[in-house]
Write a structure and sequence with these properties.
alpha+beta, 10 helices, 30% helix
Length: 274
């Protein structure tokens, strides 16, 4: 179990929306020029997922936009983030996990709670790909500049899964392949208790000020307690972690029901035995 809070740096690729969410989840908006990560620590005893290593991709040339310039992002850093996203393997949406339906798919608070519950309720004896593919199946598209930021249009269909698995700057909600295997050997599994779902005031203010123009985009901060159960040397062990996720969703009136755009912030604080 990690002894210290584990927090992920907001990604440079979504720095604008990270700024808005960080303003509410943390007491400062200064750390907005932090990029390449997006989450915080892993909600389990396990560390999060590694940015997939794929064949060396050609580093794309991304001209810095006003958004990047205003936050002090340097082009080499931005290019590195884009290259990592480009190198990440494409994910299919073929998952055995159940999709979110009914009322939970039509109301943003319910969707945020249902999404977080399914994302973090992990059975390590099952394939990790089931969770990654499920995220892809729940993914939704947006072109909102302050949300999708500097992600090249041709890579935006990878953003949802990448945002919950990349560990270049900290842990991610879905642990790495290696950590998943380690927990599988311990018959690991997690359960989730949602504590609260809130719409960030900073987000609401940004919408009211006209800074966010996509009528279907919204954000939620979800707080939960994740309990990990493992079997070590024949003994069952349980540990609890307090988790907070900053998530963005796309839904009505742009689309019929809510879908997942990406995870912007992620923090996990070990609590010990539940």
């Amino acid at each position: 179990m990690h002894r210290y809070p584990r927090r992920r740096i907001p990604s440079r690729l979504v720095v604008a929306s990270a700024m808005i969410l960080t303003l509410l989840a943390a007491s400062t908006v200064m750390a907005v020029s932090l990029l390449s990560g997006r989450h915080g620590p892993s909600p389990k005893t396990a560390p999060p997922v590694p940015a997939a290593t794929a064949p060396a991709a050609t580093t794309p040339t991304v001209e810095p936009t006003d958004q990047a310039a205003q936050t002090g992002i340097r082009k080499p850093e931005l290019d590195a983030d884009v290259a990592r996203l480009r190198a990440a393997p494409k994910v299919t949406s073929d998952s055995p996990l159940p999709r979110i339906t009914g009322d939970s798919a039509r109301q943003p608070d319910l969707y945020a709670a249902a999404f977080t519950t399914q994302l973090l309720t992990q059975d390590y004896r099952r394939p990790r790909e089931a969770w990654v593919s499920w995220v892809q199946a729940e993914s939704a598209h947006t072109d909102e500049p302050l949300v999708i930021g500097l992600v090249p249009p041709e890579l935006r269909d990878r953003w949802a899964a990448f945002s919950v698995t990349d560990t270049s700057d900290g842990p991610a909600p879905i642990p790495t392949t290696q950590e998943w295997a380690k927990l599988a050997a311990q018959a690991g599994r997690t359960s989730v208790r949602i504590q609260r779902v809130t719409e960030p005031m900073a987000w609401t203010n940004a919408v009211e000020a006209g800074r966010i123009t996509d009528p279907g985009i919204t954000a939620r901060i979800v707080s939960a307690v994740v309990t990990l159960t493992t079997v070590v040397d024949g003994h069952t062990r349980t540990t609890a972690t307090s988790v907070e996720l900053g998530l963005e969703f796309e839904g009505p009136p742009t689309r019929g029901q809510w879908g997942f755009v990406g995870a912007v912030t992620y923090t996990a604080i070990p609590m010990g035995q539940p």
